[in-house]
């Protein structure tokens, strides 16, 4: 099965079959102005502990932490870099990583972040490579001058090439981290059964991870991740997070040790480090286990939880990660997750649980300054929606006329775009969004009731 282009908003989701629209409900819909605050304020609940953290030296877990049997066998590796670490990592240390006994932060700069020392992922990389390859310019500047050596160019966020932020020094350096961090992880905890690799904008749900891993044997050579493809190479998308078993990490680390110079050349010519790691794993005899929807490229606000992809419907699966989560997103979802597990006494959180309890309550007929990513008709040359000037009410009429339309959006330049997906979206000045709420509820009625959790096991 061919895979979608890397880093695009992928998801060739199958069309949703929904009930005939209840027009009378639509006529009663409220198109009065609402703000995002009307729908995303956290619900009041229990107080979530965020101050008392696991001791990074001993791995001692605070008594206030929930029990996570099996977590003592896992090493969590957070990959980051000097240009983002201080902004993105601290929130994890007081939330998602607070109760994790074994964790390390690997970076291109050694420093303290909230009293946790980062590992220089390039410490054991040859000086010849570090001083002879221009991709290491940021690393060398930072080693000599610290954070004061950073320039405005180092913080560029604009993609200026088909592969991403080609001119960003940190982006160019990042691909070199993947193979060295395998060695760092193995050195830190060689006896770990599982090695979990995440990025600083990846949100992990630990009970779901442990439930998922219980179906595997760490002595098998396993590589679990969100399938991506560049050319002929299948690999796990780094930002989605991926897992290596004890057997796999020792195998690929030994394999790389015997071919370091060759893999330096391969890394130099490729543009994606997660792809390079996937290539090394494949040549070491460790194929990728396609693990979507446990791991995903999207944030929780951009994830379609009702539609199929890769012949799977995520509804009854347990998500382990969401990607592109801002520090605010991490705080918000952490509160939701902790409250969910505390109040339900459940051992697993499924997509259906997330949708019913977090996403559905935040949807609205009309949101100002909000983008729900409804993109059908977004191409101006192929635009077939209402002619400008349009109103959101006219856009809603246009959506209502299509039985498969669920969400609609009025862009700042007056185009009405639609979608069969159901996404919460994010703030966007000048954009208005709306949802056919009764169609959402009808769609939910059409998906199965989850009598048990579904897992990817092969």
Automatic annotation (TrEMBL):
Gene3D superfamilies: 3.90.550.50. The keyword Cytoplasm does not apply. One of its GO terms (molecular function) is glycoprotein-N-acetylgalactosamine 3-beta-galactosyltransferase activity. InterPro entries: C1GALT1/C1GALT1_chp1, Fringe-like_glycosylTrfase. Its EC number is 2.4.1.122. Pathway: Protein modification; protein glycosylation. It is a single-pass type II membrane protein. The keyword Magnesium does not apply. Residues 1-29 form the signal peptide. One of its GO terms (cellular component) is membrane. It is found in: Membrane. This is N-acetylgalactosaminide beta-1,3-galactosyltransferase.
